[in-house]
Amino acid sequence: MIKRVSIQWVRSIIRAAEASGVNSATLLERCGLAAQALEGSVGFIPLSTTVTLWREAQALSGDPYFGLTMGERVRPHYLSVVAYTMMNCQNFLEALQQVQKYQRLVSEGGRVNLRMDEETASIVYIPHDADEPFSRHQIEAVLLVILSFARRMIDEDLTPIAVCFAHAQPEQTQRHQEIYRAPLRFSQPEHAIVLERSWMTKPLPE
Fold this sequence. Notes:
The structure is a single chain. Helix content is 45%, strand content 16%. It has helices at 7-19, 24-31, 47-61, 66-73, 80-87, 92-102, 136-153, 174-180, 198-201; strands at residues 4-6, 44-46, 110-116, 120-127, 162-164, 184-185, 191-196. By secondary structure, the protein is an alpha+beta fold. The protein has a five-stranded mixed sheet. It has a two-stranded antiparallel ribbon with strand order 1-2.
């Protein structure tokens, strides 16, 4: 079965590219993607096309922080029912359980796992195999969106114990430091946000 990605998520990539000075028509042409395919509120495109879109958007923009540029622009309403169910949970643990249940409505490109011990909680993103390897910018965007939701829902001052990436450290990481506001670890076994366990069950504000 062909894995798919929501057009809401895809449009976020295109918005980030436009913010970086990329002509959206040129970007779509290079990906073989018709603008009509992104119209409406509900729809999907193949994961393989989305992987190409990420690579072409970053190449055209020349932005070494393209994944962060995209991740910063994602708003809850872009994620439709997934965000709605998260916002109506009692704590972030319940919210992540809703993400695991409904994440395919946003993207079938990967899955979110949660691993907890006595003191820490690791939110792990596992990308699925595609025709081409994921760009690191895809991974950095996903982790930023998860962390941004945690801060929005729990506490804006939430500081992770660490943010881990399986890919090697990029040449430039200044914006990573500014945005994640946490120790960064590259060339790790997995992509993960590591939090103090207590954040997971802290009651969410009304």
